[in-house]
Each structure stands twice: as C-alpha cells, then as structure tokens.
Amino acid sequence: MPLPSRTAVVLGGGTMGADVAAIFVAGGWRVSVVEPKRPRWPALRDRVAAACRQLGATPDPARLVVHAALVGVPWPELSLAIECVPESLALKQSVFAELERLARPDTPLASNSSSFPISEIGRGLATGGRMLGLHFFMPAHLVPCVEVVRGEATDPAVCEAVAGTMRNLGKVPVQVRKDIPGFLANRLQHALMREAFALIEQGLASPEDIDNAVRFGFGFRYLAAGPILQKDLSGLDVHAAAATTMYHTLANDKAPPACLRDRVAQGKLGVKTGEGFYKWDAERAAGAQAQYERALTDALAILKRDRG
C-alpha cells in the first residue's frame, strides 16, 4: 500500500531536489522544500515549473512551499521526507538526526544519496526502521527508475509503502535488499564504465566510438528490454558461449584508470569546466543538454505506452 497522505518535504533545493519536488507536485502532492539560500528560490520555483511541464502537468504554485529552515515545515502533516543535500556523510547524518526529532514517528525518512549507505547515515539513531534510501537518477523527473534501498534496520513494510507511492507517481521503483556501495543501477553502470575507460586507456577505441557503440548498438535495445530479458529473447546459450570467450579478458581494475584520473587532476571535469573527454563551449553544452532532455522525454513516452 502507498503512503496514506499526499504531503512531502524535500531537504535541499538544488537541481536534484527541485526535480524530485517536481515529481510530487506534478502528481498532485503538496511539497515543502527546505533551501536555506534565499537567492536560489526563484530558480528553484522556475525549475519545478519547467519540470512539471515536461511531465505533461500544469504547474500549480500553491503546491510548492519553500522554507529557509526546518522549523517552518508542517511536520505533523507530512507522510514522507526526502533528503537531497550535498554528498557529505556528516551533513546527512546531522540532517537525519533533525528529521528523526521533528517528523512524526511513522513518517519514512529517505535519503537520495548515491554513495552513502542509509545504514551509515542513520547510524546511532533510534528509529532506523523507517529510514531508507530513495535514489533518483538525473534528471530525476524524466528518468523513471528510482531505487528503494533497504538498510540494516529498515522495516521492509516501509520500503513497500514508499515503492507503492513512487509507482503511483509514475516512477518504476526497484527494491535493493541491502545497501551495498552503488546499490543496484550504479554498480551495473560502473561495470560498463570500467570497461569503457579501459578501452580508451588501451587505445582500442575513441570516446566517440564507445558512445556510439552503446547508444546505437546494444544500449538501443535496452529501451525495449533490460539485459536479462534481452538475453532470454536472444538465447542464453549464445550468451554463455560469448561469455566463455570474453569474460577472462575484461577489465578488473581496482582503481580508476589514468585516462580518468589525469583529467580530474587537470581540472578537465566535463561541461562544468569546458573540457572532459570532449571540448565544450556554452553553446555546445546547451545544445547537448537540450538534445539529451528531448531524447529522454521521447523515450519516456515510449515507456509509458509500453507500461499501459
């Protein structure tokens, strides 16, 4: 069963927090967003409105209330709290300590952290049974999947209720039964990226060709079927034979390769610094981001049709 009421709070009004808030606003929920930096408020409201429109919903400003501090939030009304603050374990632990104190005892407390286990974030708190990971993928309002991550003390019924709520909001929740590093999707993604970077490091393929091989090759099929279903469709015997030939040659590096480490050390971080594996100016970056979101929106329409 989903959560009983339709009022939530999002802690953090950055890009991720705004997009998460938009999911709930577009679904008819009332959402409080806690963002201490008031100069960010206009951009936050604009992003939530734009994200709602991308989801085919008419933005309703009355459903979004922005607060400068936790004390202004209507805690007795809330059925879900989602933490989207920066990736600092100490910061997240302090936020969860406050959430435990302020929220009703039956309110699930969720973290959008992509790197810290919920068991560590909630370590030492008294109500760990209601604490869980709720990991969205950027852009959160367009990517359907959301990971519902169970910590050491999490009550499975809490995960079921939150997953049901996300399903009602049009998301595709996947439950992760233990909060191992990277959870589910990021582990799969990093396995792919390790091999991709190894191929670049060895001079066997360019970044452009790797991107095209994934986007227009096997990755294209993933819109229609996930990797396990796709192999069932194509034949497990074929995959097993290929695996026997290939697995022992795949990268198993324990640390990021030099082609990645060196770029980070040189400050070549991608769009945010003007260069990564590609070179970026403002016009090219804006065009790539717009094209990316258009493609995601089109893909989302296909997936919605397939899900009925």
Largest sheet: 8 strands, mixed
Broad shape: globular
CA-CA gap between termini: 20 Å
Mean pLDDT: 95
Annotated CATH homologous superfamily of the largest domain:
NAD(P)-binding Rossmann-like Domain
- How does the helix and strand content classify structurally? alpha/beta
Number of strands: 8
Looking at the overall shape, the CATH architecture of the largest domain is 3-Layer(aba) Sandwich
Q: Determine the CATH topology of the largest domain.
A: Rossmann fold
**β-strand amount:** 5-15%
Count of separate structural domains = 2
Question: Stretches where pLDDT falls below 50 for ≥5 residues?
Answer: none
User: What is the N-to-C order of secondary-structure elements (H for helix, E for strand)?
Assistant: EHEHEEHEHEEHEHHHHHH
Cα-atom radius of gyration: 21 Å
- Helix content range: 40-55%
Spatially, the strands of the biggest sheet line up as 3-2-1-4-5-6-7-8
Instruction: Give the assembly state of these chains.
Output: single chain
Q: Class of the largest domain in CATH?
A: Alpha Beta
Structure report:
This protein is of the alpha/beta class and 308 residues long. It folds into two domains: 7-176, Rossmann fold; 188-307, N-(1-d-carboxylethyl)-l-norvaline Dehydrogenase, domain 2. The protein is built from eleven helices and eight strands. The protein has helices at residues 15-26, 41-54, 89-102, 118-121, 156-168, 185-201, 207-221, 227-234, 236-246, 258-265, 282-307, and strands at 7-11, 30-34, 64-67, 80-83, 109-111, 131-136, 145-150, 172-176. Strands 3-2-1-4-5-6-7-8 form an eight-stranded mixed sheet, with helices on both faces. The protein is globular. The protein starts with 6 loop residues before the first strand and ends with a helix. The mean pLDDT is 95.
